[in-house]
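Box 3.1. Reading complex inputs
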Amino acid sequence: MSSPRTKFLIGGALVLGTAGYLMATSIKDTGMYYLTPTELATKLNADPTFRNTGVKMGARVVPGSIKRIPGGKEYAFNVTDGARAYPVIYRGIAPDTFTDGVDVVVEGRMGADGTFHATTLLAKCASRYENAPGQPGGDKYKRTPGYKSGARA
Amino acid sequence: MILIGELALWVALLMAAWSAITSFAGGSMGRDDLITSGRRGLYATCAMIILASLGLWTALLSHDFSLTYVASHTSANMPKIYVFTAFWGGQAGSMLFWALILSCYSTIAIWSAREKARELAPWACGTLALILIFFIATTCFKANPFDRMAFVPADGKGMNPQLQNPGMAIHPPNLYLGYVAAAIPFAFAIAALITRKLDASWLLLVRRWALISWFFLTVGITLGMWWAYVELGWSGYWAWDPVENASLLPWLTGTAFLHSIMIQEKRGMLRKWNVTLVVTTFLLSIFGTFLTRSGIIESVHSFAQSPVGTWFGTFFFLTTGATIYLVATRLKDLEATAVLESMVSREAAFLYNNLVLVGISFSVLWGTLFPIISEWVRGSKITVGPPFFNTVNIPLGLLLLALTGVGPLIAWRKASTSNLKRQFAVPVFSGLFAGSVLIAIGMRNGHALVAYALAAFVAGTIGQEFYKGINARRSIHSEALFTATVRLIARNRRRYGGYIVHAGIVVMFAAFAGLAFKKDHDLQMKAGETKELVDPLGHTWRFVSQGVSTSETLNRFVTAVGLEVFRDGVRQGIVSSEKRQHFDSNHEPQFEPSTEVGIRSSAKMDLYIVLAGVVGETAELRISFNPLVVWVWIGGIIMAIGGLIVMWPQAEKRRAPSGYVATLTPARELAAAEH
């Protein structure tokens, strides 16, 4: 007969083992590389099949590159880390913070055409809690939906 | 006043240093004069920090824009209430706010323990003074809210409109109150370790503080979820973002501690474990702050990278090292005085509860840190997202929910078969019944089914406990139902307050499971256009766009869309969603545009409408049906109420002095309540 202590430990090991197994497999299945455009380029050069792997890319939106594709829900824009730039196409709703020059994290995969097809778009903004100092915001204001038809002369 | 406040901050630093030195010296030499002096040093630190805080509030409310902090977080045209809450809205102010809460807590804790725990108090006082030194020094040197600018601007920069929300005004202070309260149990644990006085006495001193910490974390986290849901417009309340995880971690270990403490009180077991949990809870609070303020983890809503992070990191590693050393050298003193007697006992249920809570904490910590870990180990950053956290934590969470129902039913030490049969019949039946009803009406989602069956099981447990307790009172004291209920809870606050907390947990889990049936729709609508959608419960909703309108009010430019909403043909009214661009007095825009979500809540389902954008005259909308979301907030409120009941000072204090209310039946009552 095993003591209650041993039984408890066996039960505990089972619980933690299952949890550990779930953690390991779900990291394998859902973990994603988080890369800069330069790192992504290096990976793609080394192994072209890396295209099929979903990745997250963290980069900055090239100012002036954001375009809405008319009639659709798609955004086309370029991102860069200073060394390497990629065009991105994103379909979906963009967050309020998505504007020129912000840091974004796009999740998706690199298409054969050299365009990154994003399924999610997160915009990071240092000014979420503190108003960003010295940011020229005039253009942003003008891109507020419906601004031009607004009351301000 | 502002100048006094600034000076007071520096004096506070000196006072805290004095308190730390004299307390430790007094404690080790056993000199009462030094101990008293150290204690007074702590009180003085508190007084100085209060002065400094009054100074900052004065500066904020008098719009003294010569202070960088005031100028960059407020503006003259802001509502007064948000000017007041701007105290903790920014980095520097929040550091001072930490110091303020910590010094007040410390003063209360040390003052009330000075006679009760003569041996522990000086060491706890010294430890708290050390922590205070860290916070005050960080405030003074790295994030001083009294820093001045070279020139005085005409107006400040104002506060991010997303933060101008009542939830956001009280969410951070609640979290801070929770984080900081964890420092008191930590300090007493350290004192107990140093003095090797490791019996249950230190536990009793810190139990209430652990509860206070738990209570404020619960309220703070719930408010945070509510704010994210109504303000951020992504139709959810929890995203497993590192900042959110950072607040969840100490909550989990704190919850584990509140359960394991009972085992040590009743059975003398788990002494090492309890020390570890107390210490871990505090360290996780510090670690969370370090993570979110250092910028080492990518978070969507982290503070800007700042030097404060490095200080927190250093403090965290020093404290951890010192604590590990203390625990390791005192393992012998922490041996348990009893052993586990049976797997079928309340101890065992509580042990599993602890195991699961700590398992969840570990997986959350692991997932949060995985980008760093993978970069160290494999050289490339790998991130995990909500799928990871959900895969691991849904099963663990369900197991925890099951244990919530099992724990109160099993006897201490060793449960007999008859005890099990008598206790489990009703709860198990209610769980099975709920499960089969849901299957019968067509629910096929496995996780949700298990969740609702378990929720019904736990609800059965809680209901049965209340029923028995109330009936016992009614037959013994022949009280009316209401009186019996109130007295039952009032006389056994810890037990029945705890059950109320469990009821809140049940409600929350049921609400979480509702998300399995959430539906999102992306639509484009012109003025006058009609769209129909079917919600997860089978109701047909018709939306008629009233068109996009724009307007300008005092400080913002608003683009709004209104939808006339019908459910199954019955008009529900107009729900509108807005995009707002705030601007200052020169019409210069401030901050990013923000979204006002259109929400129509009901007990069964929230209709959640977000205006995503406008192209020409067409509004792009995301319409979500979010089942049961209101129950998350209700569950949070129930948990908070339960927590308050447990925390409320027990009757012993009232019983003692005034002579004429004689309550002579506690022994019988206890016996009745324990059945």
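In summary: Residues 126-153 of chain A have pLDDT under 50 and may be disordered.
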